[in-house]
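Hi V.,

Quick status before I head out on leave. The structure for the redesign project is tokenized and pasted below; the design run finished overnight.
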């Protein structure tokens, strides 16, 4: 006679399945955009019955919000780790700009861009988007400090907006090297402005 599964075991299995569904939804968003997210598309991507997605998420809005929350949680964790690595470092400004670009711009994903667009359409997602932007700003602030550029005039949010714009243009297929050259020129101009004060 089999023993009934304990509650913690069932909860752990349920949490794993819920996370698998969210990760599948994130892949759908990354590959096809938010408009492609349906219970059926996510169930197919996750390899679970359709009933599983509707069991854990009653509506598409709930599924979408939970998916974007997972994305932001993972990004915040990654960016906090980057900020910790940069603290106490001393790196030439242009070298830091290249490092920051490699760490952030290369990671700008369809999911991140979709998050910002959906937050513009759905007020309920704005707090989630704000958490993401704040995490990027904290990493930018750490990068600026490591480059010796810590004056308040260099608002880290301006650099986040710059890198986000760079990532958006790159995602749209614009010339990557031209964008990088422009980014480096702007960073160099900010560096000179601070040095001349």
């Amino acid at each position: 006679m089999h023993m009934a599964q304990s509650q913690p075991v069932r909860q752990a299995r349920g949490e794993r399945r819920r996370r698998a569904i969210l990760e599948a939804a994130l892949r759908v968003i990354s590959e096809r955009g938010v408009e492609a997210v349906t219970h059926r598309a996510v169930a197919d991507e996750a390899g679970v019955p359709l009933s599983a997605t509707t069991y854990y998420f009653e509506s598409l809005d709930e599924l979408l919000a939970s998916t974007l929350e997972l994305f932001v949680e993972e990004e915040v964790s990654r960016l906090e780790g980057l900020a910790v690595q940069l603290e106490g470092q001393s790196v030439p400004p242009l070298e830091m700009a290249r490092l920051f670009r490699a760490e952030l711009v290369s990671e700008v994903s369809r999911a991140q861009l979709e998050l910002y667009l959906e937050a513009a359409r759905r007020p309920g997602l704005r707090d989630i988007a704000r958490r993401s932007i704040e995490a990027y700003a904290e990493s930018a602030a750490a990068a600026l400090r490591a480059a010796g550029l810590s004056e308040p005039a260099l608002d880290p949010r301006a650099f986040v907006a710059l890198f986000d714009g760079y990532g958006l243009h790159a995602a749209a297929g614009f010339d990557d090297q031209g964008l990088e050259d422009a980014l480096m020129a702007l960073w160099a101009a900010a560096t000179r402005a601070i040095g001349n004060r």
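Above is the designed sequence. The chain has a mean pLDDT of 78.

G. will cover questions while I'm gone.

Best,
W.
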